[in-house]
## 1
Amino acid sequence: MKILRTGLSAAVAIAAITSFTGCKPKNAASVVSADAAQKAYVAPGKYDEFYDFVSGGFSGQLSVYGLPSGRLLRVIPVFSADPQDGYGYSEETKPMLNTSHGQIPWDDLHHVEASQTNGEIDGRWVFANGNNTPRIARIDLTTYNTAEILELPNSAGNHSSPFITENTEYVVAGTRFSVPTDNMNGDVPIDSYKKNFRGTISFVSVDKNNGNMKIAFQLLIPGINLDLSHAGKGPSHGWFFFSCYNTEQAHTLLEVNASQHDKDFVLAINWKKAEEYLQQGKGIKQAVKYAHNVYDEKTHTAASNFETEVTVLDTRSLPGIAYFMPCPKSPHGCDVDPTGEYIVGSGKLAALIPVFSFHKMIDAINNKKYNGYYDSIPVLKYEDVLYGEVKKPGLGPLHTEFDGKGNAYTSFFISSEIVKWNIKDLKVVDRAPTYYSIGHLSIPGGDTRKPNAKYVIAYNKITKDRYLPTGPELAQSAQLYDISGDKMQLILDFPTIGEPHYGQAIEASLIKDKSKKFYDIMQNENPYATKGESNAKVVRNGNRVDVYITAIRSHLVPDNIEGVKMGDEVYFHVTNQEQDWDIPHGFAIKAASTAELLIMPGETCTLKWEPDRVGIFPFYCTDFCSALHQEMSGYIRISPKGSNVPLAFGTGDTAPGGKDTTTVQ
Ligand code: RUQ
Ligand code: CUA
């Protein structure tokens, strides 16, 4: 969405209205009414009514807030290594960030989508996209950990993702950047874009029982930019809709060159038809390489495997999969209402919102009423598929969510507001300013068949003066509006971590009781687990030293280790012996080049350490776990290479060397 900040200013159509200060809403403070505080207030010790899973954008993480309080409950590392809990640093979690390009400890997480059954949020998983090095992640809603990451081949700029079908049959991933496919020689001139660059859409299937993802097939599409998408529902189940820009197929100065056409497209994909072709063997198997990383709950360890094949269906030679609906102008959001009949395209540069009718689209397809072809794909006529237009709704429409009572809520970046309009008569019924420049918005369940329309949350791109200033860099900001009445009512601002793109709010009652409290240590199948202090040990194998440590309030066993030498690779396998909620132990050692470990009760985590000098190195628990937490520490002695200090370890009476016999001089 960064494009919008600079990109729109050059677009001729709206040059006059882009100055930010020009559209800053007035009387920002006074619009908050007196009972706002009460509505957002959740008393100390009381629970929020919703979990809000909010993307972290360029932080690569997912934050979890409570609503209506806006309290930050947790940050879940997904595509970014996180020193706070060792994700991406511990030996067990490093494989999660593996890709065909090697270990990549960062990505740009834009969208979150909750798993669905019968078009309703089922509270099992949330999915998130990695935009930069294309990946999809699945987060488990019992552990709130990233359980799986799947890399996407033939792909660049995975933006229109991870939107989901109504029974979580598929999570999709469409390419924002067209590129030569992986099996081609990619060493081609950039100005051969039209000939060599292609877009793809991956349909990733999700196993009903364990959530495991697999690329079922990929669709090859013309070299345009896919922006966002949503699945059909109800009558339109079996279809997927994508907004497309850059139908000009420009490859330079897109802000001007990709804004030439008066209309771009909404791409309608019939994925049931694609499945038929797949079954008929019409797919082409392509040799590719991509990582599939899965975290195993029992071993507390991730494994990374490389897949080597995808099946590709070419939409240009297989009729009936893809149709274009003309859509004014450079559409961004592409949203389907709860009934599944209305598809809303949001042209960033359009002065209206087009609402398409699914059944009119089907009629036009059945009657083969095409207005020609775009790169072999039939183009339908705008008038034939249009239900109607919302006239003069605001400036710079981006995204639309629904309340399930016949209303739609659209975010307007340039005029910085949320506009509520009625789907039947397309009339604007309310508008509320946002502070400032809203991107996405979300209503709990607002993109499903069954919204819970209590609130709409605005995810804003610009924060400016909303909070105490913190230098040039400010946190981004979300805002909460009560929409239970006819008028939207602003009740809360809260700062967010990273750039909040999309969010999915889930009723707490659906998931809170499934939240895991600790791991059963008897079920811990990590090969380096230590169950009970008496099993703690240090084992040398050549220059590899495995330290099996136990942690329990308030000591580590062993806490004195000798006989480790320069050139050794030391693996500290720390097992938390606690079997109680909220008693993690941490582990850090001086000069470690990774991060700490944060080990949950019953779990084992491993820190790899290569000593860089001779001496004594302390290690300790980093999480204040008891009154004697500061005592939870130990020493390792590093001797020169070739030294004959024997390997020894222990604690208390069994510590190497026994009692201290030296005297203070
Ligand atoms: S985007 S602000 Cu990356 Cu979803 Cu529209
Ligand atoms: Cu364990 Cu502090």
Note: The radius of gyration is 27 Å.
## 2
Amino acid sequence: MSTRYLRSLSLMLLLGAAGSSARVLAQATSLPTVVVLATGGTIAGAAASDVQAGYTSGKVGVDQLLAAVPQAKKLANMRGEQISNIGSQDMNDEVWIKLATRINELVAMPDVAGVVITHGTDTIEETAYFLNLVTKSRKPVVLTAAMRPSTALSADGPLNFYNAVAVAANKDAAGRGVLVVVNDWIHGASSLTKTSTTAVQTFLSPVSGLIGTVAYGEIEWYRGPVGKNTVTSDFSVDKNTVLPRVDIVMATENMDGALIDAAAAAGAKGIVIAGVGNGNMTKTALDALAAQAKKGVVAVRSSRVTTGQVGRNVEVDDDKLGLVASLGLNPQKSRVLLRLALLKTTDPKTIQRYFDEY
Ligand code: ASP
């Protein structure tokens, strides 16, 4: 944790002490309550110096995160819980289930206005989309992250956190599905994707656009979420849920069927192809995929291309081969939807309907 933030925290406390305690109390009780669930990531990362690229994710605990952004206390009464403290490259089903069940408990509490989740940027789009499908409330659930660790020069985490709290505390955020707030932009869980390995402006919602923007807590709303979500979602999990294995196989020049068959042999109940172009792959790979689909493995064609739809029956006869087209979902989000869909059915037609609706 940077000493700069701790110094500014002390200054805020000194200034606060000069004010009337009655006023502070009145303000505190009228503010909405936002619960912060910390999972780790670069937003909680630390490096040995403020100008080095190397750092470790998940070094800073939730209490330090809250203390680093005292300005957010003017937006909401906050309390924090540590769900995990990992780089999001290590995100896993255990943390997902823990997070989803805890969020569902919290949003059912009348005094909780919203939830903020701090997360790594690497897999935030997958976690956000998963939560978008399995949390059950219209109350705001907002993920945030940072590209630079908390100790870096120009760390982006504190302002991202402040803006995320502002969104979670905002009544108009209700009913917009799970949101992701990074770098002044409010993304819907189904639309955002990470587009740069290092740039602060890494997240885009390239096809359907932003849900809104937030600058120093000032919010501008543009639209609602795309697809069924939260209270309109058919999917749910509880602490005993075991998500089925679904693997992603990337299509390339000269691709054969070996990795498709290996995924099925490893126990995958579903396979997502990160296809070339409009979800395409070599004839050999398509034959292997169709053979697995015939054996009951659910096969989804998505695309390794960042933007655009994968349409049904365009260059591939999905009807004949029993395949599913991912439409607007990228491979990593297709995998999330397919894992949840497989809890209900293995019928490709029903699963195609889910891809239409979500
Ligand atoms: N590897 C980090 C993570 O996803 C990157 C980040 O948070 O920006 O946890």
Note: The first strand starts at residue 33 and ends at 40.
## 3
Amino acid sequence: MALRFFNTYSRKVEDFHARDDRKVDMYTCGPTVYSRAHIGNFRAYIFEDLLQRHLEARGFEVHRVMNITDVDDKTIRGAREAKVPLERFTQQFKDAFFDDAEKLRIKRADEYPSATDQRYVDKMIAMISALISKGLAYQADDKSVYYRIKKFPNYGKLAHFNLDELQSTGRVKHDEYDKEHIGDFALWKAWDEDDGDVKWNSPWGPGRPGWHIECSAMATAILGDQIDIHCGGVDNIFPHHEAEIAQSEGVTGKKFVNYWLHCAHLLVDGQKMAKSLGNFYTVPDVIAKGYTGHEIRYALMRVHYRTQLNFTWDGMKEARESLGRIDDWLERLRELAVENGRDAALRRPRTSQRNVPTQFEDALDDDLNISAALGFLFETIRETNRAMDENKLDAKQAGAWLSWWERINATLDFESAETELPGEVKQLAEARMQARLAKDFRKSDELRDKLNALGWEARDTKDGQKITRRAGAK
Ligand code: AMP
Ligand code: ZN
């Protein structure tokens, strides 16, 4: 099956053709660093990670850019309230974002441009000047510069509405009477007292860029006038991405993005997880409940990106159980592969795989159908476990399944790493290892029971103690 994605622009599933045979340019809207990102935001980044890794699995070289929005109303307000310079205020949340993304094993983008970087501010100013000279933007009485949406014939094509609707439904509050049309959005916001010392000089006086022009400028400065894929959450479609199209195409006259991909929201009790609703969890919040980063990764990835996903603690338990099944399966396969005197897993070169199924990748080709892909994985686990129970799997076959796993795990990145054990578990495991070295087996058994009670199992193998999740553990 050809690789295909649902394109928000056409509202159709389309075959994917990169502009270059083997390279894909991808732009993803990153965090606004006024507070720690919540796991709803991370659902979007996990979906983008899956997309990137699957494209790579299909042989594309992906060049991904993720911007950091480090100047806007919320960051300025936050810095003012904290009484620290904007840069210091945003830095702590940039650091937190990278920490959390690493815990969730999200591949790093190639570039993380910041909106406040003078290089990009210059590009924003150049783009706004070009828009003014084409009659697509104007400076209003309040000294701010606005985009003249009526002059851009395609405005509304991405979100699928027409301009008159925008006026009649009153979906944008008409409280900025300097504007020609209620839907005109700010490209350059004139400085006012609340902005303090956050300002840049421009041909229109001191001020700062609007959020939308930041992304148009950073995307085109780094990736060029045209890009293959642009992603974000569905709340980015309007006005943010609609505005990006109007700005970028308004300046270049070329089609800005070939495929627009948007993920549905992470919900809590049926409502969008959002800062403003106060119903959010951060990555450290979930880790504090005893879960690991890769369990969060699993919980956020397991549902198709265009389906809403409800966050629940039961969902986290299920993630733990599913990953536990994978770990147990791998352990059995590895034991079998090594037991028979030939470490088939290590010896088999990846290229020699024949007869290994492709259903996993085929499912992902179909607009990233992760449910079908994981369904196939768990079916395979069930079948190979049964074959092992019946002694019908030999070392070579176990090795082939291990290489298959290695291949699909390059996309999933689901395998447990001991460094990820929750703090308390790590301490108990360490104490148990010491007890065994001291031959204090009573203590070692007590510690094993404690680990069990927390849902973990300690096994003593020839390579030392192994800590894994207990199958069916809460
Ligand atoms: P923001 O920091 O608000 O600009 O959001 C960063 C990214 O997270 C954007 O792509 C949003 O669309 C996305 N996002 C925000 N809330 C959610 C949510 N509850 N579920 C999924 N994605 C979200
Ligand atoms: Zn953006």
Note: Residues 30 and 67 are 5 Å apart (CA to CA).
